[in-house]
Amino acid sequence: MDRILLGNEVFEGRNNAYVLADETLALVDTGVAIESIRGDLRDGLAERGYEFADVDDILLTHFHVDHAGLAGEIQAESGATVYVHEADAPLIAQDPDAVAAVRDRRRELFAQWGVPDDARAELPDFFESNDIRGPPADPTPIEDGDVLEIGGRTLETVHAPGHAAGLCWFETERGSEAFVGDAVLPVYTPNVGGADVRVDRPLEKYVTTLERMVDRDYDRVWPGHRGPIENPTERAETVLEHHRERTEAILDILRDHGPADAWTVSTHLFGELEGIHIVHGPGEAYAHLDHLRHEGIVSFQRGEYRLRGGAVEIDSYF
User: Fold this and answer.
1) Which domains are assigned to the chain?
2) What's the Cα-to-Cα distance from 297 to each of 264, 300, 311, 315, rounded to whole Å?
3) pLDDT for res 40
4) Residue 9 pLDDT more than 90?
5) Which helix (H) or strand (E) holds 102?
6) What integer pLDDT is reported at residue 76 of this predicted model?
7) Which position among 81, 144, 170, 277 has the lowest Cβ density within 10 Å, counted as fewest Cβ atoms?
8) Model's pTM, two decimal places?
9) What contacts 55, CB < 8 A, 6 or more positions away?
């Protein structure tokens, strides 16, 4: 698979932009809109005899800026069609109402999670100090099951929410490989709960996504960060086990320390949080706590989660 390795000075792990070229030229994901990564992508295309103006199609796995930041800029130079799931399209377009809704939802959840005022103030500073979003694009919305003919490839859209509401992977025509964005990653586990505060019941949705990947049993997948995953079924099962273990760890925290809010649980899990982890840490704790609440294992009262009585068999909830 032809991929351009992009630096990543803002988020964890190097990004990938995949080049699909035949009679037309397509990119899968574009990287963050900062000068060094813009240079990585321009140089990578130049090595293949192309420039931004030659791009016909851009396929985005989801709206996060480390995957979609340069899409609008490339579209402005080339007139490329930008495909993204319908749930993420308003954010790719930087629709003011959609952007404001995310900001309001994050503010609401920060209060619910018990995030301290100084930490709440730090997160906007993190984003404002990194001009990473890039200009808006005019997206073409897609949905689960849509088949796209781009860059000489036939790709089927598979909606895979959890990490993001509109995250999709794109399965190749033979069904043996897929471009998976952050649905599953080779080194660390994608954040759920904080990475996209729009997602309702994020852990439940992400577990379903992982089970869907296990069922597809691909030979190889191409993630948004780092190298290819040669045994994606095993990797998806490992991530599922990670979430079982994290749920057990959270139950132990509540047993050992009593009722707690999501921020307190996250500090027991991860220690001191800064930068983007101010939302990712308590968001991850919240995703598990919310799942346990829906399953009747914990209750949520006066801003704190507390254990209900009785033995718990975690495997029955995954």
Assistant:
1) 3-96+130-230 (3.60.15.10)
2) 19, 10, 9, 13
3) 95
4) no
5) helix 96-113
6) 98
7) 144
8) 0.94
9) 25, 26, 27, 45, 74, 77, 78, 80
